[in-house]
Amino acid sequence: MLRKAFLPSKLPADPMPLFEEWFLQAREQKAQPNPDSMVVATSTPGGQPSARVVLCKKLIKDPGYVVFFTNYRSRKGAEISANPRVAAVLHWDALGRQVRLEGRLVLSPPDESDEYFASRALDSRIGAWASQQSQPLDSRATLLKNVAREAARFGTHVPRPPHWGGYRLWPEVLELWIEGPFRVHDRARWTRALEPVGAEGFNAGPWTATRLYP
Ligand SMILES: Cc1cc2nc3c(=O)[nH]c(=O)nc-3n(C[C@H](O)[C@H](O)[C@H](O)COP(=O)(O)O)c2cc1C
Question: Does the model's pTM come out above 0.90?
């Protein structure tokens, strides 16, 4: 397993290419069973945070955002619609690498959600209809009954539910961390300004890089 040495001594102006390199290496080397797993923390308007794992399905290095997919009516969906500012972490233990993101979410355009939904296994597409994610469920038998009902309703042509789709996470802060011997790790943070343009994204300013004590 490749464990690359430290961050370049002169930090790159833009961290996204290095983030992409780490992400692709984690996938290629199968660094862990779910190398694209990402913890996303949301919070209520009152400031109570909550965190959960999702899968980071896309990394677009220019202009710089990542995409995950979920149920828009889930707990996270409700929290995001009240407060679209989130934090996220990807961690590849076997590679000794961590990436931290802080930024803002926008909904994926419908074609991005449609495209990813269509690529999912049939059972996963049916599951998106059968599960009212984050709502109380009286028994597992009810969920299985819902799955059977939705499978019978749709057959093999399962459209994307309107409440299911992607979020694009645009980081304003991105930190790359690499493990060093005796806890002498290497760590740098990049920040940039995001100016909203329309519903689907931002004009991103240039990144500013700072090395941090680990
Ligand atoms: C490895 C792993 C991957 C997951 N991927 C997703 C995902 O891509 N989307 C999703 O909605 N939930 C995913 N989950 C489930 C979430 O962690 C969580 O249970 C669910 O989204 C409900 O969260 P909420 O009630 O906070 O909205 C994943 C869980 C694990 C452990």
Answer: yes
